[in-house]
UniProtKB/TrEMBL annotation, chains A, B:
This is Arginine biosynthesis bifunctional protein ArgJ. CDD domains: OAT. Belongs to the ArgJ family. Substrate binds at residues 148, 170, 181, 260, 388, 393. The record marks 180-181 as: Cleavage. The active site is at 181 (nucleophile).
């Protein structure tokens, strides 16, 4: 079993600095790299507007070997054309030279405003002074330096066998990961068979980062990568998978609860589906419904909106409203009970009670077969609208 | 050519009354019926949680003959089980008896809160006193009586040949019609071949009501129907189609501009698509993006969010970011121009200017083939969140 630990995996060095991608003096430039060769498993956004960072990193990770990543926060370098691509190559090349690794073994990730060129003069100035050694550890700093509108850093670490696994993530808006999340990096000193590592990584990502949605908007920059340098020796793969799932799920819940403007985490547990894909589709329809999200925000026991959202899956003709069951926490709200208006009032009071908590659980049983999937999201608030009405200006 | 007119089509009688479905004394009960037999064309929500009103009306409209519709506003009668179904049958049967038409020639539509039973005592009380004749005309009253959170009634009328066509609609939230809209009724005294009428109706609905989205949430109650009683004789079908398109598009724009909390109409014109379906998919991705909608609300020239939304169509692998063009009004924002930060600033100023108007036009040219589709929506505001956080309570 894995347990929380403040320790960092051996052999990972981290550099962070305020380079000036935004004008607030915060750290916005991060290099995270193993001091020895490492294997990598990675997944990326499927956006048709993926930026050059994603394109370069996807290429670099393809052979399963990569030693680290350079991360630029507050500017996505997306929709920036040939100039943006040349800039990404220049930054990665320069950092790889400093690290003494081949360019093709370094990932690059970038997150922030779309459609703006990097401030290359500031970046070049900083790269000129960059020199080894970087201090080992420092995941705390890294988890802060990759933030954009996050209100808090996200970091989770566990022990697995004789090794350590740590994960950091950022992401609070433009957030419906499609094959990956925003920026998430895992580092471990465990040693795993590279192909097995990759299968484990993809299985876990699918049940965690691909199960979260803040606002249905898929980022152009989604990147999730696990670096394993083997310095702590072999670990049991099943134990490692459990540890990775623990870390990833904790990050996902932290991300959903910190969604832009969010005040509550929403967990939608779908069971009884034809298959996993249907369970996920129905869960996403519920967790992404603006009317469900606003009702949760207002602690309004308007449970009918959940049935509406399930009903939106109109291609799923095996969903039968006479068999579906819906609950909030332990309170079953549908099918309707006899008892008229008094019964309806008591039910609404019980639902409102559950909604007043920080974590809202909505259960949907489709009663078709035994497919199940749980998705995570957050409420929709005036804060989300305010924040996103004035993001660039 | 069609022209606006205040006249009503001949032979349609309307009854409205405050029956008490909500406790505010407003009209909430409407009967709209032709005084002579009529043909009907109708489309309905594809929601898997369609209410008994939709199920009964779909059946009734199947043979193309129906004389009118009874509409109950402020209670959707959805997710109400067998009791709700029995109530819908009772209401329709009683009204049909008063009108002296077979039950199967009367549609029923209901809109409002989901998951509550009708207040049947109040409704029965009203039905007991219901008697012919209803006054002819009165589409103004009807357009008000079917409202829920609409801030204004929606009614458009035109002349077509010697006939008149009028349309009324309600709908401002839970609004991404799927084969139909919320409640929309058209009445005309034109005479058309029933099959041709139906083809015209479906073609027009597809380009108008199926092209609007307020918040991605598909209603359980969507119903659109055209009643034609032929009292004004034959009309030219092409002319009628144009008139119906004019009326429907005017209603759609009125609906989008009156979206819950909305301050601006957003029109997304997609061109250069592989086919119509792709153009519609891309248009919906843009007009439904919460990040695009909030940026428009804040007049924030954050055009990169439009490229993000186009990129979300990840199955459309023929979308090539090197060929896509994006504009706000007449201002092309993508592909990026050379010229660095100064050029970027000037561009953002021009976009911000366009955003300050009441109607925002976003153009996306995919440069693949010549498929085109235009969709309509509205901005996302704190008012939407406020309104929907406290709808039932």
């Amino acid at each position: 079993m894995s347990e929380p630990t403040p320790h960092a995996p051996r052999g990972f060095a981290i550099h962070t600095a305020p380079v000036g991608l935004a004008d607030d003096g915060r750290d916005d430039f991060t290099v995270l790299a193993s001091t020895v060769p490492a294997t990598v498993s990675a997944v990326f956004t499927r956006s048709r507007f993926a930026g050059p960072s994603v394109l370069l990193s996807r290429e670099a990770a393809a052979d399963g070997r990569a030693q680290g990543v350079v991360v630029l926060a507050r500017n996505a370098n997306v929709a920036t054309g040939r100039e943006g691509e040349a800039n990404a190559r220049e930054v990665r090349e320069s950092v790889a030279r400093t690290l003494g690794v081949p360019e093709a073994e370094l990932l690059i990730a970038s997150t922030g405003v779309i459609g703006r060129q990097y401030p290359m003069e500031k970046i070049r100035q900083h790269l000129k002074g960059l020199a080894l050694p970087f201090p080992e550890g420092g995941f705390d700093r890294a988890s802060r330096a990759i933030m954009t509108t996050d209100t808090r850093p996200k970091q989770v670490g566990v022990r697995v066998g004789g090794a350590t696994l740590v994960g950091i993530a950022k992401g609070v808006g433009m957030m419906e990961p499609d094959m990956a999340t925003l920026l998430t990096f895992f580092a471990t000193d465990a040693r795993l068979d590279p192909e097995e590592q990759d299968r484990i990584f993809r299985r876990v990502m699918d049940r965690t980062f691909n199960a979260v949605s803040i606002d249905t908007d898929t980022s152009t920059s989604d990147t999730a990568a696990l670096f394993a340098n083997g310095l702590a020796g072999d670990v049991d793969p099943a134990e490692f998978e459990e540890a990775l799932h623990t870390v990833a799920l904790a990050l996902v819940k932290d991300i959903a609860g910190d969604g832009e403007g969010a005040s509550k985490l929403i967990e939608v547990q779908v069971t009884g589906a034809r298959d996993t894909a249907q369970a996920k589709r129905v869960g996403k329809a519920v967790v992404n419904s603006p009317l469900v999200k606003t009702a949760v925000h207002g602690c309004d026991p308007n449970w009918g909106r959940v049935t509406m959202a399930v009903g939106k899956c109109s291609e799923d003709t095996d969903i039968d409203q006479d068999r579906v069951r819906v609950r909030f926490g332990d309170v079953e709200v549908y099918p309707p009970r006899a008892g008229g208006a008094d019964g309806e009032d008591a039910l609404r009071d019980a639902v409102a009670d559950h909604l007043r908590g920080d974590e809202v659980v909505i259960g949907v049983d489709l009663a078709i077969a035994d497919g199940a999937f749980t998705v995570y999201g957050c409420d929709l608030t005036e804060g989300y609208v305010r924040l996103n009405s004035e993001y660039t200006t």
